[in-house]
Amino acid sequence: MRTFSATVLVALLFVSVALAAIKLPALTGRVVDEAGALSSTQRSALETELATHEQKTGQQVVVAIVKSLQGVEIEEYGVDLIRGWGIGQKGKNTGAILLVAPNEKRVRIEVGYGLEGSLTDAASRVIIERTILPQIKRGDLPAGVLAGAHEMLRVLTGELSAEELAPVQGAVAVPDPPAWTGYVIIVLFLLFVFWRVRTRGVVGTLLDVIWVVASSSRGGSSGGSWGGGGGGFSGGGGSGGGGGASGSW
After folding, report:
1. Is 163 helix (H, G, I), strand (E, B) or coil?
2. CA distance linking residue 96 with residue 245, whole number of Å
3. Distance CA 50, CA 118 (A)
4. Tens-digit pLDDT profile for the chain (249 aa)?
5. Gly residues compositional bias: what residue ranges (predicted)?
6. For residues 33-46, b (16+ Cβ closer than 10 Å) or e, as one string?
7. Residue 240 near residue 41, CB atoms below 8 Å
8. What DSSP element (H or E) covers 234?
9. Rounded distance, CA 71 to CA 73, Å?
């Protein structure tokens, strides 16, 4: 029982360290191009399009191109981002994020609770597979981002019909990882920590945690803290829970 309690304690410490090590970029506008993928002209045009959409509908759509996912799955990063930035109106959760990670070659459309009825998982997948990925695979990431964001807005305003969003016949959809995979990872992690405590003892394992903390503080991301927002823009306090779709190239 003592070993089990120590295992749980150390596991919680490891989880806390992992969460602390993930630093999301500051919300500096409707377009957060941490990777520097867009030109100033492209970024300005996209900002204007997103701002106009918000003024007309009250829906906040943000584009985030990040340097790195910092070792987590893009689905997890997307949820952290929409919650941490508070995208969408508070209480209505009318926000969405187009998240692109060039380093990991991953893309995701993260949808707030309030928009899941219009920007559905299926619609998000079609936008990624039919609009965004073909452009990126041709070597034009900016074009994929701009076109993808534009299609998201068209869906949200009802410009795209159900027929236009129907998956291409014969296309093979790549499903998101099933929800139970996260539990499997947690169980495997706990088994690893249990083995670590048995072989190195509680003190030795805690020293490992201290080393990880020291390493992350030296080499962690220099990105800004969550929330906030320069340029007169900030999230409205919205949230999301994993709605949307992901893709890779």
Report:
1. coil
2. 12
3. 17
4. 555 555 555 555 554 445 455 799 999 999 999 999 999 999 999 999 999 999 999 999 999 999 999 999 999 999 999 999 999 988 999 999 999 999 999 999 999 999 999 999 999 999 999 999 999 999 999 999 999 999 999 999 999 876 677 654 444 444 555 555 556 667 776 776 666 666 766 666 665 655 554 544 443 333 333 333 334 677 777 888 889 999 999
5. 220-249
6. bbbeebeeebbeeb
7. no
8. none
9. 7
